[in-house]
Design goal:
With 499 residues, the protein is α+β, with helices and mostly antiparallel strands. Helices cover 53% and strands 13% of the residues. The chain is built from 21 helices and eleven strands. Helix 18 packs parallel to helix 20. Bound molecules: zinc ion (ZN). The site of zinc ion has 7 residues, from helix 6.
């Protein structure tokens, strides 16, 4: 005996498939919507109440997903409040005009742009209460403190949905430096990636739905985005289907680089499409060139150098594609990043943040399937790089001190004036460029500026400790070598007339 048809026939095809996979039914793939409904009615032996509960969750999650979709506009600052009068709000969201009347009241009404498909075919027909442009406007209103959601309850949005809206506003505030993230959230995000990235990449829909309230494909994109954020990269995420999923910016590299990232789940653990679909490389080229590089101007366009596909795993043969991709795109570098390598990279960085963006770029330059061994190698190279950097600084410190020692040191003192002191310091600090320090000039006054990169505090710690040791070593050598009289002694001798 199966379930009631009326319960499930409103679900989308993907949701029906999710229902099949949740209850471990076999043989549902390839079926069309109506066939799936029949199939479930015949085969799903679960009480109606339980299915009903799940359907309610799905519908709620769908609306929450619309709120998350609003991120595409809100976080990229494409929402403009055109007018906010007492009972009439006019806004422009990514070129679409939205009008909201009587927000929070029973006679509430909103209209989206005539070009909004969602509004035309879903909202107007009563299938959904709102399109993604509505929460985008709300987020902007809350962010700019034009409404207070504790006083005005936005229509159709409460509970989890309101929570999602608040989180969006918080993310934007964090991005603009208005609030600081809590350490707890950092550990939590790291923990989620460690435990969930792999099962989610294998399309574990139950985990995705129960913990993240979305389909695994979308959760995977979010977690990958988070992983790059935890590597201190800046990202631009897009939830729209079609086109790239993520742009990752290696801001700390010099010059910065931009990688176009595509996230792919695969139930059996190996993403093969890139090999089997002859048009795949052309699609990737479109993402990098037409949808990214060609839309940027000047240096920004030159920063677009990498394409990275993240998936649970790849067949080894993908390595044969990179050369062709490079030829097709005028020199862009294609890499394949399996989930276990990404987690390994993140773990290594979490333990000690010494893997700089320049080092990550070096790894992407190799154009290959990035294995755990590659990541291991990256850690070793990063350590070597750190030691080299410290040695460079130590050498410079010694060299500069030696220049003054010969002239000024006596039995007790090394003598410096401000000019000398500054000179030594700047020469040493310059050795840290471009990995830890960016040296520039304030053009109007011609003063040098030093931008210190705080993300690599572990590298700083190592280099500074080594510098301290070197400085102490120089002092010790001087203490042991110098016999030249001090000025005090010279003066005494003069006065005592012992010469
Ligand atoms: Zn709309």
């Amino acid at each position: 005996m199966g379930i009631k048809r009326s319960l499930i026939k409103e679900l989308t095809q993907k949701e029906l498939q999710e229902l099949c996979s949740r209850y471990k039914l076999k043989g549902y793939s390839g079926k069309k919507h109506s066939q799936l409904v029949d199939f479930l009615c015949e085969n799903l032996a679960v009480p109606d109440e339980e299915v009903e509960g799940f359907v309610v969750t799905l519908v709620k999650d769908r609306l929450t997903a619309k709120i998350k979709d609003a991120n595409d506009y809100f976080l990229t600052k494409r929402v403009h409040i055109v007018g906010a009068e007492e009972n009439l709000i006019k806004a422009n969201v990514g070129g679409y005009n939205i009008i909201i009347e009587n927000l929070g009241r029973d006679d509430f009404n909103y209209t989206c742009d005539e070009r909004c498909q969602d509004w035309l075919y879903q909202v107007k027909k009563g299938r959904y209460p709102f399109c993604k442009h509505y929460p985008a406007v709300l987020a902007e209103l809350i962010f700019s403190e034009m409404i207070n959601v504790d006083e005005i309850r936005p229509n159709y949005i409460d509970g989890d949905m309101l929570g999602a809206l608040r989180r969006m506003v918080e993310t934007r505030k964090r991005q603009e430096g208005l609030i600081f993230p809590k350490d707890r959230s950092l550990e939590e995000r790291f923990g989620n990636i460690e435990s969930d990235l792999l099962p989610i990449s294998l399309q574990n829909q139950v985990l995705a739905r129960d913990k993240y309230h979305e389909r695994a494909e979308l959760v995977f994109e979010n977690l990958v985005n988070d992983a790059f954020l935890l590597l201190e990269c800046e990202t631009i995420q897009r939830r729209k289907t079609g086109g790239w999923d993520l742009l990752v910016m290696g801001t700390n590299a010099s010059p910065p680089f931009i990688a176009v990232v595509e996230c792919k789940t695969a139930a059996d653990g190996i993403y093969e499409q890139v090999l089997t679909n002859p048009n795949y490389l052309y699609r990737l080229r479109e993402y990098c060139i037409d949808l990214t590089k060609n839309r940027l101007i000047g240096a920004l366009a030159d920063y677009v150098k990498y394409m990275v596909i993240v998936a649970p795993g790849f067949p080894m043969e993908v390595n044969s594609l990179t050369f062709r991709f490079s030829e097709m795109t005028g020199g862009l570098h294609l890499s394949f990043l399996p989930v276990d390598s990404l987690i390994h990279l993140l773990r290594s960085y979490h333990k000690a943040p010494i893997i700089t963006h320049s080092m990550i770029e070096k790894m992407l330059l190799r154009e290959k399937l990035i294995t755990q061994e590659d990541v291991e190698q990256l850690v070793i190279e990063s350590q070597r790089e750190m030691v080299n950097l410290a040695n460079k600084c130590k050498g410079k410190l010694r060299e500069k001190l030696q220049e003054v020692l010969y002239r000024t040191a006596d039995a007790s003192f090394i003598k410096l004036d401000t000019v000398l002191f500054e000179k030594i310091l700047t020469e040493v600090v310059k050795q840290l460029a471009p990995d830890l320090v960016r040296v520039g000039t304030k053009e109007a006054v011609g003063v040098s500026t030093y931008s210190l990169m705080h993300d690599y505090y572990k590298v700083w710690e190592y280099v500074l400790n080594e510098l301290v040791k070197e400085f102490v070593a120089v002092l010790k050598e001087q203490s042991e070598q110098r016999v030249k009289r001090t000025e005090l002694k010279e003066e005494m001798l003069n006065m005592l007339d012992l010469r």
